[in-house]
Every structure is written in structure tokens, then in C-alpha cells.
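Q: What would this chain look like folded?
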Amino acid sequence: MERAEFYQAQQRFDRLYKEMDDLYHDLAVGLGLSDSALNVFCTIYTLGDGCLQRDICQRSYTSKQTIHSSVQRLCVQGYLRMEPGKGRDMHLYLTEAGRALMEERIRPVAEAELRTFAALTAEEQEALLRLTEKYVRCLLRETESLRHSKGKRKEKPL
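A: My prediction, written as C-alpha cells:
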């Protein structure tokens, strides 16, 4: 592949990534949720009621601070309640209002995602997963020194 073609392919991939990110943002807005609230509810939908707050952080690749703020807001709004677990673990449970929201807004999202994935053949599903995993592993390796240079920089973040 020529350098120009390679660059165009990378730009195409970046546009697709951004398009999917925008799609989920628009979905959250359309459902009357913040992006982080959508992440919280979708993860609880997947992991089940009573999952740990740290599991949501790990599963959604979202910072502890963002998830904590979102969970606090959802508790105040009456959708979630927290119960302490072992040590510093915090279990999250849906309230009645949270279960209703889950059924009305989150279940349709999860079902749409499943139908979308099912529209691919088994071979396409496997290829998508395999190639995406490979891309992520390569990008992690290629950016390792950049991601771990935080402590080495003298200037403040922009």
C-alpha cells in the first residue's frame, strides 16, 4: 500500500471511530442521559444489579472520577443506591425508578447492539473482533512511551 493510500485508510478508520463515538453520544442525548450515565446503565445491564463501581470503570474504560460523579448524581436522582461491600468496594443497585429506566431506555439499546452484531456473519464477527483487538494491542505498544511519560514532563497539561 502506498503511503497516501495508507494515510487515507487510517483517516477512514479514525472517521469511523469518531462516528461511532458520536452515535453513542447522540444516543445518550436522545435518551435524556449523559454519556457517563449511559455507560453506567449499560454496564449494569451487562454485569447485573449489585455490580461494583470499579467494575463499571474497568468495563467502560472511564475514569474513577467520572463514574463516581455519575453514580453520585444517579443516586441523588433516585435511580441507584450504593451499598458497601468488602473493604472499599461499593455495590450498585437499581431502585424501582432505575429498573424502569433500564427497561424503557437501556434494554432497547442493548437489543439494538445485539441485532447489529447479529447482522454480521460469524466470520465477519470474528474478523471484526480479531482485527480490532490487534489494532488496540499495536496502538498500546506504539504509544507506551507517550502514555507513560506523564511524570517526566515538567509543564502542566494543556
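The radius of gyration is 19 Å.
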